[in-house]
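Before the break, one more example. Copy the sequence into your notebook; we will annotate it together after we see the structure.
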Amino acid sequence: MFTGLVQSLATIKEIVPEGPGVRLVVSDPETASGAKIGDSIAISGCCLTVIATDGDSLSFEAGPETLQKTTLGELSTGSQVNLETSLLVGDSLGGHLVTGHVDAVGTIDRREDEEEWSTFWINVPESLSRQLACKGSIAVEGVSLTLVEVEDTRFSIALIPHTLNVTTLGARKVGDRVNLETDVLAKYVERQLQWAKPC
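Here is what the structure looks like once it is written out:
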């Protein structure tokens, strides 16, 4: 479980083909110094397991499902990714509850910049928009954000200068694809509403 508060901006050091998947080697001295094999770490919103550590680097394995249904399959050597280590019991929950299970990949439809601030409009599958509500929460590339406006097939988010500077979102442009995870509570509400429908 995560909060959606990115702890560091890391770099993909190497991508090694392994069977049907790949090994991702991520360079980040701060995260690597406290990580151990078996730890769960969110990479741009996708929860992966540390399989090896080496100095300032961490290694993860990503299978075909992960590569096809998240933006991790689009990474290359030198790409930057958002990192967040998993919550510990008693940690402060500053963002919202994020599982690291990507629901869909959205596409940035519009970016409006005003000085150092930005508003993004992101296209989303209509089936996912039922789990979105104005002033609710969503994780975009693993970043906990507040929904501003919600339409049938897209939504908007407002990004402060700090978020743009310390996450991958600052470099995102129209047409870029981003990992999306809706609020876990919204998933359960939608499921309950489905069960409540008359026969």
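The mean pLDDT is 93. The longest strand covers residues 8-18. Try to locate both features in your own notes.
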